[in-house]
Every structure is written in C-alpha cells, then in structure tokens.
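Case 346 in the screening queue. Each case pairs one protein sequence with one candidate compound; here the compound is serine. For every case the pipeline is the same: read the inputs, emit a complex structure as tokens, and attach any notable structural observations.

Predict complex for case 346.
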Amino acid sequence: MSTMSGARRSSGVLITGAGGEVGHGLIRALHEHGRTDIIAVDLREMDDEIKGMCAQTFVGDICDKALLARLLSMFEIERIFHLAALLSTRSEYAPERAHEVNVVGTLNLLQLAAEQARSHGGSVVFVYPSSIAAYGIGDPGTKAGAGAVVEDAYLEPTTMYGCNKLACEHLGRYYARHYRQLAQDRVEGLIDFRCLRYPGLISADTVPAGGTSDYGPEMVHAAARGEAYACFVREDSRIPFMTMGEAVEATLLLAGAEREKLTRCVYNVAGFSASAGELAAEVRRHFPDAQITYEVDQQRQAIIDSWPADMDCGSAARDWGFAPRFGMAEAFSEVLVPGVKKRYGV
Ligand code: SER
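Case 346 output:
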C-alpha cells in the first residue's frame, strides 16, 4: 500500500495504552514471539524497556485526531490492541474525562481501524479488553446467589468505567457487524472485533493505578516491600482475579483464534475467585510478617459489591480454548511471590 507521497507504509500492530500494566506484559510477550513491528502509543513517555521492544513509539492522546491521522498515513495496521483507559476508581473522580478517553477514544480507534481496512482491502483485528466492571449486581444477596455469571447477565454497571466498557463492547459489535448498514457503498467485515472481560489482574512486575480491584495487587506488593497494608474493602469481599501473564496469554489466544470459531464478540476470562481475606491469608503464608488490616472505604466497597463473585468462562473455553493456568495457591507460589521477591530483592 502506498501513501499519497508514493512511499510504502510500514505494516504493524498498534498498541494503545502501551505504557500501562497490560501494555507492558503484552509488548514483552509479542517481542518474545519475535514481533518487530510493534507501534506503541501512550499518553506518557514510555520506559526504555518498552521503547527497546517497539518499532516506533508515540507519546500522545487517543482523543487527538491529528495523531490518529498521522498513524493512519504512516502505517498499514493489521491488528490493534486498544488498551488505553482510565480505570474504575479514577473514572469516578473525572467521569466526563473518562467518557472522552474510554468511549470517544475507542470510537476514534474503531474509525481508524475501519479506514485502515478500507485502505488495504482486508479486515483489521481489533482486540479490546473490557472488564468485570461491565457487570452491575444490585445487592449482596443477588451477588451471593448469582455465582459465576455468564456474559449476558447483570449488565447494569454502577461505575462510569463500567458504563464506558459496556458501551464500547456494543460499539465494537456495531462496527464489526452493522457499520454504515444503510450506505450504498458499504463494505462488510472491515473490523474483526474481539473483546475479553478481564477480572481483577495481579502482576508481580507492575502496580495498577486508579482501579478498584487494586487491593489485591497492593496487598502482595506491600508484603514484599515489608510495608503494612490497610485493605480498603471488607475481608469477605469476593471477585475473580487472574495473573497478568494469563491475561496476556488469553488476549493473544483470542487475537489469534480462527474467526469461524468465534460465536460471540465478548468473552469472560478469569483465573480464581477469592475474597480479600483469602488473598490476605495467602499473602501471610508466604510473608508471615505481613501486616494486613481493613479500613473499609464504603464507596469503593459498593463498587466491589456490584461486581460478580465469579465469571463463567465457558464460552471462551469452548470457542478458543481458554483455560486458566493457576488456582490461587499456584498463582502465588509459581508466579506472584517469586516475581515480587525478585522485584524487591527479598
Ligand atoms: N481492575 C479494574 C479496575 O479496578 C477492573 O477492570 O478498575
């Protein structure tokens, strides 16, 4: 494909939010798989490790149309991992900004993908991480009775972030199946939209910023640093979690799945369901001196109470072979504890 100047555009895979937690893990994995054509975008300057693994990096805002136009003219993008977002707690402090970044930003990327696909005559795989935050369960009794929820139930999120994620799941489905459905010159199949709903994620290498499931990773990192930790939700608060490595593996597995096997646009993925108290007990098994207390923040508690205790991952298992690798004990002993010990030199 040529640009207007006649120069050939270089092809590549585009990753937004590249400097974030999932971005780090995903870029490392793609690099290990031998990909040399990673184009990374983040609002902030990316660290040297990320820069070293990418063909090109851009510091900029996904709401900046000029930046997206530049990407469109410079590259032939065949796959997009759109990770950029403001997480759930942060979004509550700036709901309108959250809508801009989380929804308008996603719309911009979907449009870029459609224009890319039109220009190279194929289809662009658009991988979109959604979240457990897309769910909203009204009361604790219903949460307890709901067990592992399927993709299409309890979709009344109470957070701006959850509303944004659910909106984008629908936008992605619209762009994939119905985009410009009344236009005479409509081209079908421009976007191959593939979405996973992550549970709370725990990485040994990075700490999250602005999420509500952050008490999980914060507990683990604080213990390894020898710091006391006051958990902001009750001991009995239960949601599913997954290690970052598994989340990245699942993302790549879905991205590479055969199109014909995908029966839906949105898939749940999760590792293990755990209460804050069970996480704390597991942390103490490995770090016996860990000091974990509970100082409940009622507002953040209400958000966790609205998320399901577990997610049914049957569709992902059937359609593209998703299988979590670790239960809670193995996640700690095989990945998280060795990882944080290495990170903090303990
Ligand atoms: N970890 C995210 C959050 O807490 C959920 O997707 O916002």
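Case 346 observations:
- Residues 87-88, 131-133, 161, 198, 200, 211-213 surround serine (CB under 6 Å).
- The chain has a mean pLDDT of 96.
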